[in-house]
Amino acid sequence: xxxxxxxxxxxxxxxxxxxxxxxxxxxxxxxxxxxxxxxxxxxxxxxxxxxxxxxxxxxxxxxxxxxxxxxxxxxxxxxxxxxxxxxxxxxxxxxxxxxxxxxxxxxxxxxxxxxxxxxxxxxxxxxxxxx
Length: 131
What we know:
This protein is mainly α. 66% of the residues lie in helices and 0% in strands.
């Protein structure tokens, strides 16, 4: 159950309508509807005024385990594929040297053990053949 459903259940249990909550908080009815339907995450201000209006601490209702501190979400909305490809072409054209360096660094970092073992194997073979 998301925060919006918990808030709606709490509001109904306290016999508040969305209009009542809107009047007490100063938030629009549409904002309250969007929060309850989990369309938006409420701002800190919205949480504060809703909590004050309902006379309850909402921090216990916020699911703190929704995301881990080392995780992040990245969303790209693409409306025009041709524009996306043109932007990528321009990016590569203007920054090709930097992109090559980044690719090389990633390659060397990811295959460091293989490269190191190759050098050490070659070093030990060279020493053994010279004796």
